């Protein structure tokens, strides 16, 4: 596994860029895929967004300045690409982001790529009812186990605001799960 500093140098060098990019994809595609999948829900959409994310990373790697971790920078790109994708789909169908997200989550039961049990399905449906920012914060904190300062870098928002968003998300999810399991 190549460390990020070396990888970035190789990516920013035209002679080593292609090989380094293949390494980057190998090292990060699964983590980025699952982050994207939590936002866009559908497997095929996640694949499309992942591809767009890597294209954007490749085109913009020269602008990466090591002020954040490479993964945080890529995560922000993946997050923005995912949100843009969902917003375009929702706008095309003339519905709000949250309504579209909830509709997508309802299709999970018939998704051959979803292997979760009933409680995982209820959790995904609960997450889909949250406002967009709370969804992102909850997924990053709960599933990806990111620290608040990492999430703050990715979403470009304050740690205090993130803590409040996570707290409210957890309360809403708990309430939703209680109504569905009682």
List keywords for this structure.
single chain, 182 residues, mainly alpha, 0% strand, globular
Would you write up a description of this structure?
The chain is mostly helical and 182 residues long. It is 75% helix and 0% strand. α6 (118-128) crosses α9. The model has no long low-confidence stretch (mean pLDDT 87).
What Rg is obtained from the alpha carbons, in whole angstroms?
Answer: 17 Å
The amount of helix comes to over 70%
Largest sheet: none
Order of helices and strands: HHHHHHHHH
Q: Secondary-structure map with pairings?
A:
Elements (H helix, E strand, L loop, with lengths): L3 H8 L5 H24 L2 H18 L9 H23 L4 H10 L11 H11 L3 H12 L4 H8 L3 H23 L1
Helix pairs in contact: 1-2, 2-3, 2-4, 3-4, 4-5, 4-8, 5-6, 6-9, 7-9
Q: Short summary of the structure?
A:
The radius of gyration is 17 Å and the shape is globular. The protein has nine helices and no strands. It has 182 residues and is mainly alpha-helical.
């Amino acid at each position: 596994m190549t460390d990020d500093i070396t990888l970035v140098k190789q990516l920013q060098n035209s002679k080593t860029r292609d090989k380094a990019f293949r390494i980057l994809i190998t090292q990060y595609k699964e983590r980025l895929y699952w982050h994207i999948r939590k936002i866009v829900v559908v497997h095929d959409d996640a694949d499309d967004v992942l591809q767009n994310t890597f294209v954007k990373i490749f085109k913009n790697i020269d602008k990466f300045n090591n002020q954040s971790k490479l993964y945080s920078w890529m995560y922000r790109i993946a997050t923005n690409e995912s949100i843009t994708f969902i917003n375009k789909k929702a706008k095309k169908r003339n519905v709000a982001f949250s309504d579209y997200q909830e509709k997508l989550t309802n299709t999970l039961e018939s998704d051959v790529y979803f292997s979760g049990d009933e409680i995982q399905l209820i959790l995904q449906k609960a997450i889909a009812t949250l406002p967009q920012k709370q969804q992102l914060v909850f997924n990053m904190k709960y599933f990806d186990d990111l620290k608040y300062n990492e999430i703050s870098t990715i979403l470009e928002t304050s740690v205090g605001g993130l803590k409040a968003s996570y707290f409210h998300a957890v309360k809403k999810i708990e309430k939703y799960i209680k109504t569905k399991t009682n």
